[in-house]
Amino acid sequence: MTDPSTQYSTVFGSLHDYDKGGVEAIDDDPRNYVFSNMFEVAESAAVWEKVAVAKNMEYVLEAIRADGISPWRVTPHDEFALVMDGEVVVELIDPADQLVDPSASGSRAVEGEPAGTKMGRIVAGHGHMAMLPAGRCYRFIADSPSVILLQTIEGPDTVYRWSEICQTS
Amino acid sequence: MSSTETGTTTNEHGYRSFVIGGFSFERDEHFVHIHWPTGRHVMAADVFLKALMRDVSWNFFYGIVNFDAVFGTMNHYGNVDMFAGRYNAAYRKAELDHQENFGHDDLMACFKEILADWTNADFDPFASPQETGTPFGPKKGDNQTAVNRTRVLANRMVGVPGDEATRSDENGFPKNRMFADVDQTEPAVHAEPGYEQEVAAFNLFAYLSRSDVTWNPSVVSVCRESLYCPTTEEFILPVIHGNDRVEWFVQLSDEITWKVEDRETGAMRATVVMKAGDCAAMPADIRHQGYSPKRSMLLVWENAAASLPDLIASGQAPTVPVSF
Predict the structure, then answer these.
(1) Which whole number is the average pLDDT over A104-130?
(2) Distance from B197 to chain A by nearest Cα, in Å?
């Protein structure tokens, strides 16, 4: 059995401190593994840009560089924001009108602040996951550069740049 | 489909023997012996039980669960192939491979009986090697609590009122020794009256630091058919998972090395080293096994769409997620 006195350090990554692995091909094309690092992606992304780092048919995971106050968005389905670095405040509004078709996929930008009822707010730090509920509006606020990994479906603002972010050889 | 018959007598080591279709299973103090009409196979008891535990708990999972390079199951979602040598180039060439199809419930019932009978009191097949006792020796009691664990399957998200609960000392999930340094602070959630069901958040890293099992992806959030299945990993993935769809890994902490082989033949295709923040796809035509030197946090991301295996098998969908 293990020695309980042994001390271990858990290694997380961040925008300013990450170490990237890689694909060591034996009989394959490294591009088949679509290998990237979300912190490296966020490091070079524009603020609030939604860069896909994983895709499975219509579903995507987006790396988002959070800094300042994001535009408001509305989502037709639940999304989930995992804070991988920094701290992000999530503000939620129940819109007075239906702003998105519930059968649509991917979140949409909302012009200005949506009319409706304030639902509440979440202060999410490192490793915290926040639900962005279906049919509701949300925005992010980050006082310093942070990284969000967003579980969602591809939408009009999803950015694809696989050849720039992935290992190719 | 093949028939089921399970033995009721015990051998000199105290273990029951089992027969299902043309396959028979026996164990002694150290090994599991598998026979089928064209061959036989021997596996270390710990390797077999740890793989069997996953196959049972995961309901035969997505695609192929290789117990090792010879024996395993392939899920057809309602019925299941059990095979020996089917995905091994040498067995195929020698025409010694064997495969039978079983009803899901029949094979599951048989596997559960084997797991219950062959798991001794000191051994937890889900635990890391340093956190459990020995699986070896003559039969010594059982460990029903361990082998009957249920997999966490959140409906919306862990921590949402009425959904799967977060973990704490109070509900029996102490921090793992290798995650003692993981911050346990929960997010500040301020819900206006009437919105308590929708304004929700939880500390995923703290939740994972309190997992009592290894290599056991469990659903924590659901975006239609997109499932976040994070898991904590230590030592070696006890199965070699053969994909029937693209699967994604996001390394949340520490490091895992993946050996990637051709799904059909077992020929090596690549080694993938993943560190915190790395994202990598596992194509639909490979099989993979992970090695995690320190307990690590891995986000396994699945697309649970039922149509995917047929679309990929028929060539209507590619085996890789994107082309660039």
Answers:
(1) 97
(2) 10
Identify the pLDDT of residue A132.
98
Mutual angle of helices B104-118 and B45-57, in 10-degree steps? 140
Report the CATH number at residue B200.
2.60.120.10
Considering only alpha carbons, which residue of chain A is nearest residue B197? A133
Six-digit token pair at B207? 């939740």
Write the pLDDT tens digit of every residue in B41-85: 999 999 999 999 999 999 999 999 999 999 999 999 999 999 999
The total domain count for chain A is 1
pTM of the model: 0.96
- Same domain for B109 and B226, yes or no, is no
Give A33's contacts in chain B (Cβ within 8 Å).
270, 272, 280-283
Count H helices and E strands in chain B, helices first. Answer: 6, 19
pLDDT of residue B151: 85
Residue A164 lies in a domain: no
Residues of A in contact with B320 (CB under 8 A): 31-32, 34
Domain membership of residue B152 (yes or no) is no
Q: Could you tell me how many CB contacts below 8 A there are between chain A and chain B?
A: 242
Out of A24, A33, A120, closest to residue B281 by CB = A33
- If one counts the domains in chain B, the total is 2
Average pLDDT of adjacent 10-residue blocks, chain B of 324 residues: 67 95 97 97 98 96 97 97 98 97 97 97 96 96 93 95 97 97 98 98 98 95 98 97 96 98 97 98 98 98 95 94 96
What type of residue is B31? F
Q: Is residue B67 part of a domain?
A: yes
- Nearest by CB: A32 against B191, B199, B320: B320
Residue A16, chain B, CB below 8 Å: the answer is no
ipTM of this complex > 0.90?
yes
CATH number at residue A75: 2.60.120.10
In the chain, the amino acid numbered B158 is: V
User: pLDDT at position B83, please?
Assistant: 98
CB contact under 8 A, A153 and B224: yes
- Assigned domain for B154 exists: no
- Residues sharing a CB contact under 8 Å with residue A10, sequence separation 6 or more, in sequence order: B178, B179, B181, B182, B209, B253, B254, B294
pLDDT of residue B309: 92
Residue A102 lies in a domain: yes
Please check whether residue B194 lies inside any domain of the structure. Answer: yes
Residues in chain B within 8 Å Cβ distance of A23: 270-273, 280
Residue A60 lies in a domain: yes
* Strand residue runs (E) in A125-165: 128-132, 137-153, 158-159
Listed in sequence order, the residues at least 6 apart from B8 whose beta carbon sits closer than 8 Å to its beta carbon are: B16
